């Protein structure tokens, strides 16, 4: 079921960059873009991943099945932009994104193909691999700490946003490429060093994301009953490091501090009917806990006003469609005031939705979400566990207290230093120029070291944003390789597999991942997309059931060394 661009299209092209299959046109570099009345999705090429929906700043894109009667003419309008083609003919799914200039062609060299190690297997890593493998002869080795790939797509995207997870279909195709070797359950820094990787590759590209939470520095955070929203996200998504996280659902109210998209995700999951979640890939332990939950209100508390809300318009629209969302009278007044001042159309759209929300004084019929504004967190109260939060009304001395048994900070992610590379403490990123790691103190680049994704640019944007980000890094890397700036690896590529398995006998390769994937899908049965394994031991056991690759594939793997 393809997605459709509708009347409110703002033509800023964000969706073009987010789309993993290049099915939205005209792109900013195509003739006609400047004069186009809107952009159009090719229904034959759309893979329905929903990446464009997240990226669209004006909420103009929707799956065809959800259009209102007045929007139906846009189905035809989108399709009419493209030449007719047989219904089963698709644009190649890993086609390159048009607006990113073509990477320099890798110049073949007598010392063998360009070999790149990618650390991480989330969206930035997968898009970087996809971009590298558009070039003939390039070899990619991907290392991931967990026995399962795809980073935040698996462990971060909310379970009720299954369509967003469809981007893994693209990633599966990239991971299945013969020129890519996948080594899961291998931690660079523990089992292998940066130097080990450089000995076997011309370059190491870190796409390790921003795995730390920004911590809220107020008294009481750390008490039982407090956590970060991202920990709770990892818990309900079955991340093995967080399966045992204690999440206090035995009180009627939870408070989430911060109002970005992560806060909305958590608030939505905490208030959604567990019977609906039972049809998703939410972790079984989380589903059981949510069934027993006593929470009937989640307050999402922002320190600034409605016009500065950090959540995006599509996520607000999605939230109000899925959940009961209310504002109290004082916050309705703030919305009205902001509406009088605000001229930015995107923010006005958000404010208009907020203005229409029911008042918090209306009786609740099911668990609900209250968006609250101008509340600066002061401390979490409670002697042995959290029992509430004290805020000051921002800009005043007035103190307000909310009872709560669960207090979650949701104030953003933060990158973690990478051993051997410079680190920018202020921004939580590895300093770089177009993806090439550069030490700001000396101005020198770190030989053979590159970054992509959140560790490169900070924790902003959507899954699809990583596509152009990764492409930029790959272009830099290839240009450096062609210029002779990358040292020839000292070790042969043929030795790598043995070397990795010696260091990490429990390594899970692509065959092992496919076995884990198939086992999880089988556990899901007819009703659920999958039932995840939530312990490393169970994942390894499922991976061990992988059949030996067929002889032909083993022979081919030998030839590709
Ligand atoms: P975010 O969008 O950066 O929001 C952070 C929130 O924390 C803001 O409300 C910010 O308020 C608040 N904050 C920061 N420091 C604070 C403090 N000391 N005290 C109180 N509040 C504080 O972060 P996020 O929600 O973690 O999202 C990260 C990225 O992932 C974003 O780009 C987001 O769009 C993306 N994401 C997207 C989706 C989706 O598309 N479905 C889902 C999840 C995440 P101020 O504005 O006042 O600083």
General description of the model:
This is ferredoxin--NADP(+) reductase. Keywords: FAD, Flavoprotein, Iron, Iron-sulfur, Metal-binding, NADP, Oxidoreductase. It is an enzyme of class 1 (oxidoreductase). GO terms for molecular function: ferredoxin-NADP+ reductase activity; iron-sulfur cluster binding; metal ion binding. This protein is α/β, with parallel strands linked by helices. It contains 20 helices and 22 strands. Strand 16 and strand 17 (399-403) form a beta hairpin. Helix 9 (261-271) packs parallel to helix 12 (313-322). The protein is globular, with a radius of gyration of 24 Å. NADP nicotinamide-adenine-dinucleotide phosphate is lined by residues 54, 216, 257-263, 265, 302-304, 308, 310, 312, 315, 377, 410-413, 459-462.
Record keyword descriptors for this entry.
561 residues; alpha/beta; six-stranded parallel β-sheet; 4Fe4S_Fe-S-bd; FAD; flavoprotein; oxidoreductase
Give the amount of beta strand, in percent: 15-25%
The helicity comes to 25-40%
Give the termini distance in whole angstroms: 41 Å
β-strand number: 22
Number of helices: 20
Radius of gyration: 24 Å
Widest sheet: strand ordering: 7-6-5-8-22-21-20
Oligomer: single chain
Average pLDDT confidence is: 90
The hetero molecules present are: NADP nicotinamide-adenine-dinucleotide phosphate
């Amino acid at each position: 079921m393809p997605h459709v661009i509708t009347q409110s299209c703002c033509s800023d092209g964000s969706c073009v960059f987010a789309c993993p299959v290049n099915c939205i046109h005209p792109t900013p570099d195509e003739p006609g873009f400047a004069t186009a009345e809107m952009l159009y999705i090719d229904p034959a090429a759309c893979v329905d991943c929903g990446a464009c929906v997240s990226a669209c700043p004006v909420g103009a894109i929707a799956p065809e099945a959800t259009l209102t009667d007045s929007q139906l003419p846009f189905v035809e309008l989108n399709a009419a932009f493209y030449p007719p083609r047989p219904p089963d003919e698709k644009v190649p799914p890993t086609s390159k994104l048009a607006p990113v200039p073509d990477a320099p062609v890798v110049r073949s060299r007598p010392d063998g193909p360009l070999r790149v190690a990618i650390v991480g297997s989330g969206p930035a890593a997968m898009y970087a691999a996809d971009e590298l493998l558009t070039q003939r002869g390039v070899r990619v080795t991907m290392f991931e700490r967990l026995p399962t790939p795809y980073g935040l797509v698996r462990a971060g995207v909310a379970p009720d946003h299954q369509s967003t997870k469809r981007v893994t279909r693209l990633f599966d195709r990239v991971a299945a490429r013969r020129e890519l070797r996948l080594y899961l359950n291998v931690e660079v820094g523990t089992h292998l060093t940066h130097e080990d990787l450089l000995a076997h590759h011309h370059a190491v590209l870190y796409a390790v994301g921003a795995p730390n939470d920004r911590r809220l520095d107020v008294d009481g955070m750390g008490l039982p009953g407090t956590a970060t929203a991202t920990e709770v996200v990892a818990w309900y998504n079955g991340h093995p490091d967080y399966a045992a996280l204690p999440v206090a659902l035995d009180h009627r109210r939870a408070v989430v501090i911060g109002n970005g998209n992560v806060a909305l995700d958590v608030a939505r999951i905490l208030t959604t009917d567990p019977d609906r979640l039972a049809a998703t890939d939410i972790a079984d332990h989380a589903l059981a806990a949510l069934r027993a939950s006593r929470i009937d209100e989640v307050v999402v508390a922002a320190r600034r006003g409605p016009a500065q809300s950090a959540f995006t318009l599509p996520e607000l629209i999605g939230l109000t469609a899925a959940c009961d969302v209310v504002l109290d009278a004082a916050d309705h007044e703030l919305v009205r005031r902001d509406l009088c001042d605000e001229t930015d159309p995107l923010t006005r759209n958000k404010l208009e939705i907020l203005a229409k929300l029911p008042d918090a004084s209306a009786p609740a019929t099911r668990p609900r979400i209250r968006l609250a504004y101008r509340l600066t967190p002061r401390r979490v109260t409670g002697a042995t566990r959290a029992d509430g939060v004290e805020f000051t009304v921002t800009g005043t001395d007035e103190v307000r207290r909310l009872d709560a048994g669960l207090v979650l900070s949701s104030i953003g992610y933060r990158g973690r230093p990478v051993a051997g590379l410079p680190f920018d403490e202020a921004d939580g990123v590895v300093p770089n120029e177009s993806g090439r790691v550069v030490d700001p103190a000396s101005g020198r680049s770190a030989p053979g070291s590159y970054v992509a994704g959140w560790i490169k640019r900070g924790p902003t944007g959507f899954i699809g944003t990583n596509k152009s980000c990764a492409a930029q890094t790959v272009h830099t890397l290839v240009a450096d390789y062609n210029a002779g700036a990358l040292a020839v690896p000292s070790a042969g590529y043929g030795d790598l597999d043995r070397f990795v398995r010696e260091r990490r006998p429990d390594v899970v390769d692509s065959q092992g991942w496919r076995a884990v994937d198939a086992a999880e899908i089988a556990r899901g049965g007819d009703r659920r997309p999958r039932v995840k394994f939530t312990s490393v031991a169970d994942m390894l056991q499922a991976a061990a059931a992988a059949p030996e690759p067929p002889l032909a594939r083993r022979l081919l793997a030998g030839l590709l060394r």
